[in-house]
Amino acid sequence: MKKNLREINISTEDIPTSWYNILPDLPTPLPPPKGDEQLKLLPEMMILECLKQESSPDRWIEIPDGIRQLYLQAGRPRPLFRALNLEKALGTPARLYYKSEFYSPTGSHKVNTALAQAYYAREQGCERLTTETGAGQWGTALAYATSIVGLKCTVFWVRAVYQWKHSRRNLMQIYGAEVNASPSDKTEVGKLLVKDNPDHPGSLAIAISEGLEDAKNDPKAVYSLGSVLNHVLIHQSIIGLETQLQFEMIDEYPDVMISCLGGGSNFGGFVIPFVGDVLTKGKKIQFIAAQSEAAPNLQGTYRYNFADYAKLTPQLKMYTLGHMFEMPPIRGDGLRYHGCAPIISLLRDEGYIDTVAYPVDEKYVFEKGKLFTQTEGFLPAPESAYSIACAIDEANKCKESGEEKVIAFNVSGHGFMDMVGFRKVLGLE
Ligand SMILES: *Cc1c(COP(=O)(O)O)cnc(C)c1O
Asked: Residues with Cβ < 8 Å from 154, sequence gap 6 or more?
């Protein structure tokens, strides 16, 4: 009976008090970052508490009360929904559940780590955070978080996206952030590139280089990264930890877990507490990362590679397409990154993570996003539509086989600021 609940939620008092760090539970130790010169510079450019968490051996990392308050203010906990209407439309015997990260003030799960990072940066006495953004969701999340805790924010935004996402740019500005199209003339790296081509479309790797350089040159500024790194996945584990409690409430447990994957933060945050169950409690779950053929980084090679274009970052052992890899533009722009989080890369190498990549024209994925909107009522972010498409594919497989699998997927954000993408891909007026 309880299993037919449409909305499952924990109370505000039951928000987890610690994040989960999978490092001590990994099947093999995580290969450390490489590069003496770059590693030496990190303490000058990064948030110290985040740097500490990056290699923490502790399984549980306490969430300071100040950050739990910020989570409450941002609307956590977020409900887990049963997709009864979508199940009916598909005629599947599978039970579908989705986590509602779209209920975020700025539209994505990225606020979960933005708030933590802004909080720690302020505690450390910083005045300004610098960052890069691709799709714009991370820049908006950090602009929001810095605004809430009272810091300044400078965003370097991949020019190709900066140019068409006007509303999102304005939202960052309303939060008080300084927003630059990247490559820009604010940094040495940027100047070199715009000199050759003033309309250089930019890339996430270039924008990261600019954010790092800006932070390096200002003692009151630190650089903040929205995905890929261990501490980001730790903060995002709040998604999966809440989901575990919600499944417990209805005595249900997932057989399949799905989310979209760019750098790996929403996928990691959603599944990693459950991967912990698989590694330490003998549970069995299939984990699937939904990607774009424009940047199928989990189908690249597992090796040491830089996280940015100018090689300012240490090298990380990860599944990568190469730090200078050129990717075709897509509307699900948050999925366009050359490498995948080292933790998820290791889990993939050990055989725990499956992946699918959808075609670059995005028609199939956006059609599934539309079906989800028509049945469940929530307009997903283009990236989240990949998660939905993959969940629908798995539900359809259950229809063929008659299996009553429990399929859980994460809807990482809403698409209210991505209407141009929907219009173009679906051919709307
Ligand atoms: C940034 C973003 C992604 C992709 O980044 P990950 O780090 O892989 O999660 C996916 N969905 C939304 C809504 C995003 O903003």
From this structure: 128, 129, 130, 131, 177, 178, 180, 211, 214, 221
Q: Taking residues 292-299, what's their average pLDDT?
A: 97
Which phi and psi (to 5°) does residue 97 adopt? -125, 140
CB-ligand 1 contact for 261 (6 Å cutoff): yes
How would residue 312 be classed by pLDDT, with cut points 50, 70 and 90?
confident
* Ramachandran quadrant class, 255 (left: phi over 0; alpha: psi -120 to 50; beta: rest): alpha
Q: Using N-to-C axis directions, what is the helix angle for 363-376 and 382-401, rounded to 10°?
A: 80
The domain defined by 7-16+66-108+237-426 folds into: Rossmann fold (3.40.50)
- pLDDT band for 3, please (50, 70, 90 cuts): low
Give the pTM.
Answer: 0.97
Tell whether the model's pLDDT for residue 264 goes beyond 50.
yes
| CA 318 to chain CA mean position, Å | 16
- Would you state the pLDDT for residue 2? 64
Q: Which of 98, 271, 335, 414 to mutate to test the pocket of ligand 1 (most atoms within 8 A of CB)?
A: 335
The reply to whether ligand 1 has any atom less than 6 angstroms from the CB of 259 is no
Sketch the domain layout of the chain as residue ranges.
7-16+66-108+237-426, 19-64+110-223
Domain 19-64+110-223: state its class.
alpha beta
pLDDT band at 326 (very low <50, low <70, confident <90, very high): confident
Is 290:358 a contact under the CB 8 Å cutoff? yes
- Ligand 1 atom nearest the C-alpha of 137 is 15
Has residue 1 got a pLDDT over 60? Answer: no
Report the SS3 class of residue 351: coil
Query: What are the start-end ranges of the H helices in 103-229?
Result: 111-123, 137-149, 159-162, 166-174, 188-196, 204-216
Q: What is the mean pLDDT of residues 182-199?
A: 96
Probe residue for ligand 1, chosen from 142, 266, 318, 378 as the CB with the greatest number of ligand atoms within 8 Å:
266
Nearest CA to ligand 1 atom 15: 137
> Ligand 1: does its nearest atom lie under 6 Å from the Cβ of 415?
no
Ligand 1 atom closest to the CA of 384, numbered from 1: 11
Residue 384 CB less than 6 A away from ligand 1: yes
